[in-house]
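Hi support team,

I submitted a single chain yesterday and got back a structure, but I'm not sure I'm reading the token output correctly. Could someone confirm the output below corresponds to the sequence I sent? I've pasted both exactly as they appear in my results page.

Thanks,
R.
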Amino acid sequence: MAQVQLRFYEELNDFIAPALRRVEIDHVFFRKASIKDMIESFGVPHTEVELILVNGISVNFAYTVQDKDRISVYPTFESFDITPLLRLRPKPLRLPKFVIDTNLGRLTRYLRLLGFDCLYRNDYDDGTIAKIASEKNRIVLTRDRALLQRKIITHGYFVRNIIPKLQVKEVLKRFDLYRLTTPFTRCTCCNGLLEKIEKHEVEHHLEPLTKKYYDSFLVCSDCKQIYWQGSHYEHAKHLIDEFTKISG
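Hi R., thanks for writing in. Yes, this is the structure output for that exact sequence:
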């Protein structure tokens, strides 16, 4: 039998039992355990953890917990740079590319509207999502805690909000994406990139009033969906302004 003292900080407390939040936890264990497994036994996905200090020293997920260790577990630091202390992941993903769980379809469309590369299919199972994330260096967005506990997923985020518009704001803030938005550059249906196309090339696909009043068009390079600045455009612009307004 061995015992450690362990504490979770800030939003990591969202995942643990109320009685254990924001206090030192005396935890008894009976077999050798990695610190990753111990953290996840409390319900905290490893993808939510940015820094682990054991007796004041930064460690990685492979660290084997020892008797009488004092463990502090931290989420992402937004106010200052802790890069020299980080030991958990080989490197950050410089370009934010996502693979999104099946329960977040509306969030996917909104993020694509803002120009972000988001893979999504409503028939993806957890194993497929984890494999895509690992092989294609994508960040998993989900509301499934168990999915984020899969070992091969190195970058992921548990979306707290259940309202899609608030989910967008949450993701933008969590990954500091405000300056990386490129609206109207990606197909909201399939994720393909949009390209300019001459009107005469798509005229045979247009309704009479669209053909009469609009001259500028974009087409998806993958699914060939056609876009123009119709009545939906102003609504989309309003959404973009709403999403990208930085709140205090």
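A quick pointer for reading it: The chain has a mean pLDDT of 92. Let us know if anything else looks off.

Best,
Support desk
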